[in-house]
Amino acid sequence: MSTAAGRLGRAGPPRGLDVGPQRPRSTRRPYLDNLKVVLVAGVILGHACITYGDLGSWAYHEPSTSEAFNLGAAVIVSLGSLFAMGTFFLVAGLLTPGPVLRKGPWAFLRDRALRLGIPFAAYLLLMYPLVNWLGGREHSLGWYLREQRDRLDPGPLWFVGVLFLFSAAYAVWRAMTPTPRATGPVGGTFLMWLVVAIAAGTFVVRLWYPIDSFQPFAAHLWQWPQCLGLFVLGVRAAEHGGLEPVRVRIRRVGGWSALAATAVVLAALATAASVDPFAGGTTWKAMLTAACEGAIAVGLSVWLMGTFQRHFDHAGRLATALGRAAFGAYVLQAPVLVTIAVLASRVPATPEVRFLVVAPAAIAGSFGLAWVLTQLPGVRWLL
């Protein structure tokens, strides 16, 4: 998710590496900054929905008894899981080949190990047990630290751990094959096959790892086909072009395809007595979910990129500051959200009312704290 990545050295790419339209090295991509801000805010909103809705797992729960609110929260979280994390990986993939080319694979790998590994280790060893203690306080902090040795749960930073694995694999691949095979830019045919690959991979993986199943390091294996597919899409687009800019026809087809798949999923959920068959297995509902996830993950991610390129490619002072703080806000969201929710629990109000206050406060607090920390010389390079 590095916002400084993706710029090529002045000497240009080696022969055979088509990186598409090049930008000056010091130029940011404002549309990507703005997209990341929206995605991170959406993730915080989703965790606020889990906090007050009767669904999912999170460090602090205060579930509503309102069926309407719980249904709305479930729709937000469920639909978000079909594309949001994959879009993060698309952005990360788009910003990966440039630094690998500029720094070299091993220097890139060392930098990623520090920038991603330090927050991941901090969450794994201390931060997430502390967040669980703040949210539960049923036991001592020492008890939560000991439990963490068995669970190995980094909370929302599972994304950071998986991103490091994908980035490391790409760096090693480029060390072995420095010159990519010449191919054309990303087009409609490639995107269609990517939809099929993500759908098939998702169905197969969820035979063993259904949605919301637990693995060490909270690896979210049931989302890996989506995440890996879109990371590969970002890498290929960075090396060969095709998404900067997203062509109008591809943007429109992607948007309509994602909308149609979303309607199908919602219709199936609305007529189902239980959501369990959608989570994985050999049921037709699991197959339908996987197929729709492929269409939504690819179509909506590409549509978002094209839309932000067309309408949100501006770099005002506030937009730049928020974009610079986006990764830090993602890292800090858990302690900020849980702390605000625990404090709000003392105010006499229904969970629905608290949600309306806590969700925007957590978004603002996460970005605000991240911005402050990015002004500190010793922390700026990390967040």
Give the helices and strands, then pairings:
Blueprint: H1 30-52, H2 67-81, H3 84-94, H4 97-103, H5 105-136, H6 141-151, H7 158-176, H8 188-205, H9 224-240, H10 248-270, H11 284-311, H12 317-344, H13 351-374, H14 377-380
Helix pairs in contact: 1-2, 1-3, 1-11, 1-12, 1-13, 3-9, 4-5, 5-6, 5-7, 5-12, 8-9, 8-11, 10-11, 12-13
Write up what this structure looks like.
The protein is mainly alpha-helical and 383 residues long. The N terminus is likely disordered. Helices cover 68% and strands 0% of the residues. It is built from 14 helices and no strands. The protein starts with 29 loop residues before the first helix and ends with a helix. It has one domain.
Key structural traits:
single chain, disordered N terminus, mainly alpha, 68% helix, globular, 383 residues
Percent of residues in helices: 55-70%
Shape summary = globular
Tell me the quaternary state: single chain
Spell the H/E element sequence: HHHHHHHHHHHHHH
Strand content: under 5%
Number of helices: 14
Sheet bearing the most strands, described? Answer: none
Distance between the termini: 10 Å
Tell me the Rg in angstroms.
21 Å
* pLDDT < 50 runs, ≥5 residues: 1-26
Describe this structure in a few short sentences.
The protein is mostly helical. The protein has 14 helices and no strands.
